[in-house]
Specification:
The protein is an alpha/beta fold. The strands form 3 sheets. A 5-stranded parallel β-sheet has the order 2-1-3-4-5, with helices on both faces. The chain has a 4-stranded antiparallel β-sheet with strand order 7-8-10-11, covered by helices on one side. It folds into 2 domains: 131 residues, Rossmann fold (3-Layer(aba) Sandwich); 104 residues, GTP cyclohydrolase I, C-terminal domain/NADPH-dependent 7-cyano-7-deazaguanine reductase, N-terminal domain (GTP Cyclohydrolase I, domain 2, 2-Layer Sandwich).
Length: 258
Amino acid sequence: MVDLLSGGLRVIVCGSVGYGGKEEILRLQDALRMAGYEVVDQFEGADYTGIEDFRDFREMCGKIVLWDLERCREADVVVFIATRPSFGATVESFFSALKGKPVVAYCPEEVRSPWPLYISSHTVKTVDELLTVLEGLKKEHVKIRTLPNLQGEHEAIFTYSNFTCLCPVTGTPDRATIKVRYVPEERLIEYESLKEYFETFKDKPIHHEEVVATVLSDVVKAVEPKLVEVEAAFEERSGVKARVTKTWRKNDQVGSSL
């Protein structure tokens, strides 16, 4: 029997923390949890709201920024509270948009800057409108299906030669051949689902390296293998062919950051 990976979206709420907006973030997190969404909580283990001045804490700044960006990477959708100024939320949203993730601008009040709205793929004014958008995104959110591994340890290689995404700079199609090599443990990739999964990239503006990182991360989350390697060979652009490879090994620090 085919097991579908959870169809629920992982959502992160980004907004002004240093300028008095944390409570608004927490309220929106609670509303999303009550609606059944998994919330990626950037405050869990890294709450810096008590710091008034970061000028003498450069090392801490680096740790906080990397922590927050890693939480954005874990999320499927970014909700950007756009009614307060926030350096961090703007960068997090732009970072996520460049990776092909949907960014929803939540605007319960007037917005005095065009930037958050330009970065975002959707704009909403109420929680109900936000839930409607997320419901639509959930229907588009295709995951890799899996099967129980009854064949024991082995290696499998899947090749998909019709991969297409969009260049985030020019908006033109980027075509590639994607190869996934993995050693399964308890779960197998239901390989017929890969075509549907890869087709979700066709309208996404996303860099070559991020394509590989995203596929690798999704395979690891779907089947928790012993080893997985993803290789993408892109067609020539501006006289240059790109081939990007990323490897993940269980219990191995090298290549394990997703």
